[in-house]
Amino acid sequence: MSFRVTIDAFALSPGVETALVAAGRERALQHSRLGVHAGGLPGAIVHLAHNPTPQVVIVEENDDDRTMLGRLEQLAEVCDPGTRVIVIGSLNDIGLYRTLLGHGVSEYLVAPVTPGQIAGAVSALFADPAAAPRGKVTALWSARGGAGASTIARNLAWHMGKALGEQAIYLDLDMTFGASDLAFNLEARQSAAEVLAQPERLDSVLLDRFLVVHDDYLRLLPSGGAAPRSLDIQTEAAEQLVDLAARMAPALVLDLPHVWAPWTEALLRAADEVVVVARPDLASLRDCKLLLESLAANRNGNAPARLVINGLDLCRKTQLTVKDFHDTLAVAPALVLPWDSVLFGEAGNNGQLLAELGKGHKIVGQLESLAATLVGRGQARKDRGGKTLWSWLKG
């Protein structure tokens, strides 16, 4: 499996629990995160009511078919639309099997089950490459050079991973002047430029080898540490890189250079979210207006770009106000970050994330909140009254 799948499994019996734990070591699930919990189907309902929904839910149920269907209805009320559900049951009944599959349950396995059966059932859900789960892509763009988009991109990526309890991926695509090697205090083995220089070799295996693990919440493809050079980036290669990375993590952050080229334009238009970072000055306001108008014309139905104003109060007497941006752009900033030379300066010099240096700092809390919103964890679960199990499982 060349993509990463998040799975939560809920066992009732020791035999199924043992098989689920062993399934996580199967080759087909080597890039996936499989969490095994107790409680079976009732336990899944309680757990998912208060925790993020994974891409696949596996539940064991040993009660009668009527009780099972009722509990699956309750499960649907606490799951996100499109969640894949695999049921492990004790009833070897073809009628029940057809009923469940016909109404949206992905697979029904009869206990006892083997690790291979479980891994095979999950793999079959994504056998078609088009069906492979794809993480949410967020692109960061500076309205003007020096607005701080790269710093914000790196920190948002880390907070996204933390919010999801998974490793997010950060791609430093500023292949000429990127500085993520310094920002993370590492010596880059390979860079995004080297990946895109050989698009014919690019696949998930190569990309997985090039990604650097920062911690439990972040992997990155760095740039920096090499002499600046002119690069001819092909749009198809950039899109292929982003598509592969998006299938390897639940959240992907693109740190784009301040260069208007066919490939950067294509990635901005295709991203699920675009965050434009601006300083509170007239030039940034003008460029924000031009960019937002350009993107609004063709974003393929994706969300409108979000605005972040960075460095407020650096020049209090000459800066534009938040109201100036709102009145001109008709966009309320998603985030307004105050100027803090100590926090940002020390983090940059030490090769640290802001959260590592300034725990409890207001700016860290603001970034954490925006990251949660971008990955869909910043809002309370919506009321799903009136929806049936089947409408949710079918997505």
UniProtKB/TrEMBL annotation:
Q: What is this protein called?
A: Pilus assembly protein cpaE
Cite the InterPro entries for this sequence: Cellulose_synthase_operon_BcsQ, CheY-like_superfamily, P-loop_NTPase, ParA/MinD_ATPase
Is the keyword Nucleotide-binding assigned to this protein?
A: yes
Per UniProt, the keywords (alphabetical) are: ATP-binding, Nucleotide-binding
Ranges annotated as spanning the membrane: none
The keyword GTP-binding is assigned to this record: no
Q: Which Pfam families match?
A: CBP_BcsQ
Q: Name one GO biological process term.
A: negative regulation of cell division
Signal peptide position in this chain?
Answer: none
Query: GO cellular component terms?
Result: cytoplasmic side of plasma membrane; cytosol
Q: Which GO terms describe its molecular function?
A: ATP binding; ATP hydrolysis activity
